[in-house]
Design a protein that fits this description.
With 120 residues, this protein is of the alpha+beta class. The chain has a single domain, classed as 2-Layer Sandwich (Alpha-Beta Plaits). The chain has 2 helices and 4 strands; from the N terminus they run αβββαβ. Strands 1, 2, 3 and 4 form a 4-stranded mixed β-sheet that branches. Helix 2 links the parallel strand 3 and strand 4.
């Protein structure tokens, strides 16, 4: 049986992941309707909002032969159309990565981990 290394676990992939995560974070926080980044797993059914020093935990990057697949874990504002927020975020991230790093983005997945209600 052959031993295969996952493409996303090579040193080059790790360096690319770090670059992409740092690129995305500014764009994500600036998008209308996004309250913040969330951890990838839910704790007791609740989303954990990440602090600035750990927001990279809400971004998952997979390098593929045909490009980059990015998964974002976010918390959205109550009353905002999630479909519009997701589309705007997808476009912003795709544009940022393709323009600054020159890597084709083949997939952006938005995972809404929670909804924030102002005043509660």
């Amino acid at each position: 049986m052959e031993s295969r290394t996952k493409p996303s676990s090579t040193p080059r992939a790790k360096a690319a992941r770090t670059l992409i995560q740092s690129q995305d974070l500014g764009r994500i926080q600036d998008c209308y309707g996004i309250v913040g980044m969330a951890a990838q797993g839910l704790r007791e059914g609740l989303a954990q909002r990440l602090h600035r020093d750990s927001v990279h935990r809400g971004v998952d990057v997979e390098l593929r032969e045909d490009g980059v697949a990015i998964s974002l874990y976010v918390i959205v504002e109550f009353g905002i159309r999630v479909s519009e927020v997701s589309q705007n975020l997808t476009n912003a991230v795709r544009y940022s990565i393709e323009r600054t790093l020159g890597l084709p983005v083949v997939e952006v997945n938005i995972h809404v981990q929670g909804v924030h209600v102002t005043g509660v």
